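Lab channel / #folding
Pinned by the channel admin:
"Please post every new chain as: sequence first, then the structure tokens as a reply. Keep commentary short and put observations after the output so the thread stays searchable."

First post following the new format, from NK:
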Amino acid sequence: MANGTREIVLLPGLDGTGELFDRLAARLEPELDVKIVRYPQDPSLGYAGYAEIVRNEIGNRSVYLLGESFSGPVAVRVAAQLGQQVQGIILAATFLKNPWPGALLRRAALVNPRSTPAKIRDAILMGDYGDPELVSKIGEIVQTLSRRVRAARVRAVADVDVRDDFARLACRILVLHGRGDWLVRKSPIQLAVSEKGMARMVVLPGAHMLLQTRSAEAAAEIIHFTKSTAEAHYEA
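Reply from TO:
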């Protein structure tokens, strides 16, 4: 448990397991109470269903909320719904609207991820920042994630658009993005941040899996963000 009282809720990427947060959580826990949400392998769930799971996990607590990749829209939607309960939101390697044409994503939903060569997959996700331990963990997750669930989540991404929810957010916002992330381009969310008050974007060297490959830098930014936000709330 952390020494302080600030709690952060971490929402996972497309895999939904939360297993890829271990490095980040270890760096956050000296300063923050960390709660990792793990999604069920249920292909009937869409973004509304994932948002309901997160709201139930939070209950009546005041928290910071982090949404990684697939879960960025979940975090935005939940923050908009819960209002002042969410003290701040962190969006990592993510998007507000589908990052690729919907038709392309729906075709991608039909692809068997186990048939993608591991070297290509790892280059897309980690670039030059991967390591054997992380490569092995990704391989295990790919083997165990239900194809139907993955397909349903990719189709959900094709239709998502939470730009209006983002515009209504009253809490402070931190956006983290990898300079070399070509899976989710940074320019759309960069534009949204530039048009939004109380929002800051930090671009770090890295590819899509920024929280795993640059966990020290990401954790430092998150801790600073939560501290400064808490101090601002106290002074107000």
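NK: The mean pLDDT is 93.
TO: also worth noting, The chain has eleven helices and six strands.
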